[in-house]
């Protein structure tokens, strides 16, 4: 498949900005319940393999110059490796998660404790307990001009307003309509949060939200079915590198045509839980320097 790339998009220099990520080892990873269509508790999970795959992702981030902090895994919480769902940090202001399902509820407690203790490391300025259900970066994609927010399966619309109130950012609500793409981060990837470049899979969104995306992001990379089903949009972009699962060949080629460096990670075991690269990665976004020193 050939990809036509507008020249103004193609010729941009791609610059990495060092990031700070929070991740949780898959020490207790398992599929013991099914809360999304990808999970089948009858299939065996190879935890050692999951650990090796997750470790390769951590190593890739560190090799690219990013800082990775680790959250202690808790026995009995088999989805805790999916750290993106635990909290959302924007400008040093943190909104804790409130999970939609009882099976994951206790993860929010572990994340809250980590942010309460270590927020000082990133100039944390506020730590808010959520009122409405929100699964954090599973449904919040933070760009420089706007936060994109998914709803329809997990995160409640009321949580979009909570994040807007906490951060003062515009929050743009997008409706997810396909249960296989139950979180925003399996339907849309942030390639560069400084220049607001994204990739997404249109059929995951309602017609109205597709129109909003087309209008706001005319230069977006569009993923095809095979990309989306390979979890290709569950990717992490740092402005230059895009860390993404193997198997999203069309998306990878489209990104490379725009000058991104694709770092492919095999996440086959984690996919048994319905998650991949981005699901494993919570980004800690410190206060912007122009806002002055945090308290
Ligand atoms: N099994 C987890 C769940 O269904 C997977 C979460 C994936 N995380 C994500 N950010 N999409 O909740």
Automatic annotation (TrEMBL):
Keyword Hydrolase found: yes
Family annotation (Pfam families): DDAH_eukar (PF19420)
Protein name: N-dimethylarginine dimethylaminohydrolase
GO molecular function, one term: arginine deiminase activity
BP term (GO), one: L-arginine deiminase pathway
Coiled-coil intervals, chain numbering: none
Transmembrane parts of this sequence: none
Entry keywords, A to Z: Hydrolase
């Amino acid at each position: 498949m050939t990809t036509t790339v507008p020249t103004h998009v193609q010729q941009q220099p791609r610059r990495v900005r060092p990031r700070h990520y929070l991740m949780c080892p898959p020490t207790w990873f398992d599929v013991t319940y099914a809360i999304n269509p990808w999970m089948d508790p009858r299939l065996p999970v190879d935890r050692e393999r999951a650990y090796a795959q997750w470790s390769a992702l951590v190593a890739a981030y560190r090799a690219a110059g990013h800082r990775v902090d680790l959250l202690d895994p808790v026995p009995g919480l088999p989805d805790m490796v999916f750290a993106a769902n635990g909290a959302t940090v924007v400008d040093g202001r943190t909104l804790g998660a409130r999970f939609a399902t009882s099976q994951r509820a206790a993860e929010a407690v572990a994340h809250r404790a980590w942010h309460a203790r270590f927020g000082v490391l990133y100039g944390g300025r506020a730590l808010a307990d959520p009122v409405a259900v929100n699964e954090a970066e599973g449904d919040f994609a933070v760009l420089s001009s706007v936060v994109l927010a998914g709803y329809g399966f997990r995160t409640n619309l009321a949580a979009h307003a909570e994040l807007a109130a906490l951060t003062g950012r515009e929050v743009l609500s997008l409706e997810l309509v396909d249960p296989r793409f139950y979180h925003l981060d399996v339907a849309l990837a942030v390639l560069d949060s400084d220049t607001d470049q994204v990739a997404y899979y249109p059929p995951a969104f309602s017609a109205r939200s597709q129109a909003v995306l087309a209008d706001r992001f005319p230069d977006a990379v569009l993923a095809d079915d095979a990309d989306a089903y390979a979890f290709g949009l569950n990717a992490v972009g740092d402005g230059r590198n895009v860390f993404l699962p193997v198997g999203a060949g069309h998306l990878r080629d489209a990104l490379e045509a725009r000058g991104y460096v694709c770092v492919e990670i095999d996440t086959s075991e984690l996919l048994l839980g319905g998650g991949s690269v981005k699901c494993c990665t919570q980004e800690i976004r410190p206060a912007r320097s122009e806002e002055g020193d945090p308290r």
